Amino acid sequence: GENVxxxxxxxxxxxxxxxxxxxxxxxxxxxxxPWYKQELGKGPQLIIDxxxxxxxxxxxxIAVTLNKTAKHFSLHITETQPEDSAxxxxxxxxxAGGTSYGKLTFGQGTILTVHP
Amino acid sequence: xxxxxxxxxxxxxxxxxxxxxxxxxxxxxRAMYWYKQKAKKPPELMFVYSYEKLSINESVPSRFSPxxxxxxxxxLHLHALQPEDSAxxxxxxxxxxxxxxxxxxxPGTRLTVT
Lengths: 116, 114
Hints:
Chain A has strands at residues 4-7, 10-14, 19-25, 32-38, 45-51, 56-59, 62-67, 72-77, 86-92, 105-106, 110-115.
């Protein structure tokens, strides 16, 4: 089955700096890569995703890049703010032929702390 | 609107109790999921319902019993739980015909088994 590794496990930055979180996956058939942000006491929130036919996607201060050959993808947050502090999870999924649902395999998570 | 709601927010139950967790979405999604999340760990998939039919059971013990009464509702019935079942239980949903589609999570139910 799919295996997703995520690094680093913790990341501490100063407000205004950039933060980068990296994930690698094992199954070359995976074709969908979402990133979730989970704040304390809340459920995971989908913040950005990328599909295998795209190399990069950007939404304001966050961007995701995908390298299919190397089987890795990364989350980039620019101009970090204290409210970006949370746990971030990457995930990978592949279409299960003939089904209408996806099975996500999550990375272990990164605790991001942004210091004012 | 990408809201998934879950009730209750918190639940404390004894090992002999029977309780139920509820999840609701009004996005027209036809796939719904139950996940279990332990502290500082990623969510672990428990069950998937597709078009109100159970499609995946990730070898979950029978003391957890899912139910999908209609396309908007998902329940998780709990009976004879163990203290190690204490966790955050998350519900999620995704759009039909998108096998690699976005999953939207609810806020979770924090379950404590005493």
